[in-house]
Design a protein that fits this description.
- This is DegV family protein.
- There is one protein chain.
- The chain is an alpha/beta fold.
- The chain folds into two domains: 116 residues, Rossmann fold (3-Layer(aba) Sandwich); 125 residues, Hypothetical Protein Tm841, Chain: A,domain 3, CATH 3.30.1180.10.
- Helix content is 43%, strand content 25%.
- It contains eleven helices and 13 strands.
- A hairpin with a 2-residue loop joins strand 3 and strand 4.
- Helix 3 crosses helix 4 and helix 5 packs antiparallel against helix 6.
Length: 280
């Protein structure tokens, strides 16, 4: 069975990686006022953060329409028998459900929707792994089983400069946002059961950073090989400093740097920092 991989734009995979591994992207969008922009197509991450600073209102985000999925799947059916469609957590977006619905509407290709239960480059790791296996001729069921295996070792933590965007966007309760802002805490956040929840409340950014490093160390001390990604909200220099420190500390971990693009950046805000990892 000839299989191809689709993921959405919130995986923030480079164009080079997408071409090399034949990964197809379906975009989510950000909406400023009455103008909608497909992320990574109509608006770059740099342009987005400039607009975000200038905008008085928080932009909105929208998922791809079912019709966009149907169109993509039908186009892929001309060359492939099956598609594995890997998407950001269904607890924070309806994108995965859109793939499910479209898959039921298309008869020309077998669709395997997959809920990564996460987002950003960790979702990208899943798409990369699936694409490599597809290129080697692995069956879709074997690829899904491998993604489940990766998911069991996945951990990711992030912190934001301001909880306001998460609360306004409905991704964090008003009470949690209020507690964070009143006490000036830097809560570590993570995804549990597909939704964003606080992991620990920490008073300073420095201590929150140290705690994230410590959490990676709890897994890395086993000596096993890991892939990790430092993810930043328009803070590349800070991400490079993290990478330098972490590489010196954990030689068994392969580090890359990625970013919170427009859709995820809308909810986390500029200045967010995160670290995620999976066992190789």
């Amino acid at each position: 069975m000839k299989t191809v991989v689709v993921t959405d734009s919130t995986a923030y995979l480079s164009e080079e990686t997408r071409k090399k591994l034949n990964i197809h992207i379906i975009p989510l969008s950000v909406v400023f006022g009455d103008q909608s922009y497909k992320e990574e197509i109509d608006i770059s991450t740099e342009e987005f953060y400039e607009r975000l600073r200038e905008s008085k209102e928080l932009p909105k985000t929208t998922q791809p329409s079912t019709g966009m999925f149907v169109e993509l799947f039908e186009e892929l059916s001309k060359q492939y028998d099956a598609v594995i469609s890997i998407h950001l957590s269904s607890g924070i977006s309806g994108t995965y459900q859109g793939a499910v619905t479209a898959g039921q509407m298309v008869d020309s290709i077998k669709v395997y929707p997959y809920d990564s239960e996460i987002s950003c480059m960790i979702q990208g790791f899943y798409a990369e792994e699936a694409a490599k296996m597809a290129m080697e001729g692995e069956e879709p069921e074997a690829i899904i089983a491998r993604l489940d295996e990766l998911k069991s070792s996945t951990r990711a933590y992030f912190m934001v400069d301001d909880l306001t965007n998460l609360q306004k966007g409905g991704r964090l309760s008003a009470a949690q946002a209020l507690i964070g802002s009143l006490l000036q805490v830097k809560p570590l956040l993570h995804l549990v059961d597909k939704v964003i929840v606080p992991f620990e409340k920490i008073r300073t950014k420095k201590k929150a950073t140290e705690r994230i490093f410590e959490l990676l160390g709890e897994d890395a001390k086993s000596g096993e090989a890991y892939r990790a990604c430092i993810i930043h909200g328009n803070r590349k220099e800070e991400a490079l400093l993290w990478k330098e420190k972490l590489e010196a500390k954990y030689p068994n971990v392969e580090f890359t740097i990625s970013y919170f693009g427009p859709v995820i950046g809308t909810h986390l805000g500029e200045g967010a920092m995160g670290l995620g990892w999976i066992k190789k």
